[in-house]
Predict the structure.
Amino acid sequence: MTAFPAGTILGYPRIGRRRELKKVVEAFWAGRIDESALEASAAELRAANRARLAELGLGREDSSIPESFSYYDQVLDAAVTVGAVPARFEDLRSSDGTIGLPAYFTIARGEGDRAPLEMTKWFDSNYHYLVPEIGPETVFSLSSDRLVREVVEAADAGYRTRPVIVGPVTLLALAKASDAAPVGFDPLSRLDDVVAVYVELLAKLKAAGAAWVQLDEPALVSESLPASTTELADAAQRALAVLGGRAERPSIFVSAPYAALGEVLEVLATAPIEAIGVDLVRGSVPAKLPELGGKTLVGGVVDGHNIWRGDLDGAFAKLEALRDLGAASVSASTSTSLLHVPHDVQDETKLDPRLVSWLAFADQKVGQIVTLADGLGAGRDAIAEELDAATAALADRHGAPGVRDGAVRRRELAEADFSRVTYEEREAAQESLALPSLPLTTIGSFPQTGDIRRARAQFTRGELPQDDYEAFLKAEIDRVVALQEDLGLDVLVHGEPERNDMVQYFAENLDGFAVTENGWVQSYGSRATRPSILWGDVSRPAPITVSWASYAQSLSVKPVKGMLTGPVTILAWSFVRDDQPLGETANQVALALRDEIADLEAAGIAIIQVDEPALRELLPLKKADQPAYLDWSVRSFRLATGGAEAATQVHTHLCYSEFGVVIDAIRALDADVTSIEAARSRMEVVAEVAAAGFDHGIGPGVYDIHSPRVPSVEEIESLLRRAVDELPLHQLWVNPDCGLKTRGYDETVASLRNIVEATRRVREDAVVPA
Ligand code: GLN
Ligand code: ZN
């Protein structure tokens, strides 16, 4: 057996330093390049990544370079590899039963009336994976040898890389039951069949020259999945007994990132595998280690989740602690794949050099791993200089201007700041809005047309003068307000044309944030976002949204909603400072928003929406950590909105329909009106809302904005009738699932017309004449 490398990363960004993968994949989708051209570009990208990792100090032949590429998503990769394809796509298989690249993309993106796989958040990150559909009818068979080919491709170029694949337990634990499955079917019940395919795959990887394989099993650390920890541990035990029992396989490294491994460590310790990865950023060094039977313990001590250079000395101390506890052999790794961070801080030319010295993107983190690995071999003294430099950078950061801002810290919070008057009093005060029953509104953004993007790009490049850009945006608002008047909506929006992104826009207008040029992070498929860096104390140098909101309000006698992004979402979609509790940072953002709300009120805005689509996403994976999170997240929202007058109607918007887990938190937000997603699940959530006794305003979405489909009047009407049957009329609002920015105008206008007509019909029946 070849030893596990002294240092490695769990995975590397796949989209390319300049989003090269996005460009070629989208060109392929658009028919501008053919499959072989796409394959060639992807191979080039993989070659560049391997070369870069070797240049940064990972070994070419010691399995330390992961083979972690994906064209779209690693969960889809695993599902396709084992042939877990929903029946509606079965005809896409090639004659030899394999699933080629065009079929792979069709499963990811859908085609005509064949719906794609559903998409949902990957653990507590902002990455989205595709949800496999598995039933008793699923026939598992090795259906793609892509990973094997990549290992061979690497070998041809002189590398021995370590193939990475989502493990069988996580694949099944994240899957949902197929449409054909009987009620209550559990995909985990198919474990033995899936494992048989992994056996075959491992044999092929071995034959291709892989010395190690990495099975990612983050499901083992999550307490937020349908399967219990015990069920997952049992499944892991069964799966690994089979996989590990085979002679024809590479050495097996099971990684369990995103949280502490806890008792499952015992299961892995006794399994016939060779290395175990533990997340020591989210979890701590265990007080005592189980007997590892000669296995390597791979300490995930460099944070794969954030962009801070961090405490390298502390990271090394954790590795030494593992050794002192008696692990036979210890290696250094990142806590998670580096998928969650941008490529290289050296690609940033506009960031303050002092800030840069505090940062580590993927390539810098690889450098840190190489340092730690050297230290494991040669002792602490050999790397003392690097450790000290990181410590000095931390100290510099601690004392730097802006990191602690006296004016922000002097603002005192009183308990009363977190509460408004009672809902009843507010309802009475808001009567003056004179809204009809089933008020019609939208979530905020209108389509971001090519014209808007072009104008913004020209303005950013300095090619369009500020005045012209503002005039352009005002004309856009004129159009959007006139359209809403024409459609007959009751509460209008300005359409958000001035925002590139609902978080970045605020980051650009608040102190304490920095914005990157090339800091792209994959969000799903070919989509990437550029999270801002929240590095210092947050404050608001000037009002942000007031001029746009009041301009829009000046165009209509109907109320126009002010639109803000909430503190939790701003944190969730940024890289956040790690030197103080998140709740403290959230409260600083909340205070800035609170001031913005006061200014909006003063400008005559009567309805203000504070979006919190990420509330659910940051929910910790461990149940024990959830109450504290829900407490600070709810409090930050309440601090942001708690200063609003009784007559000001506060709305919030959440982007999902899994109401259950967070229902108490949503109630505690105490918003006057909450809009949520509901169209895809055909209003199922309304029953949950009713059962929970939720009594504030609620707008279950009637239009699935993730699809270009225009819902018919009848379809919307039936959704609305379902809602009206379950909930009191006065509580209900009518709105789409989410913002319209990704949609085109044709389908948006047609859909909104149908929503208005459906609402008219339901109102007619529902309003009983006195
Ligand atoms: N107000 C935002 C919009 O309409 C909300 C977007 C979101 O929930 N992600 O685009
Ligand atoms: Zn939304």
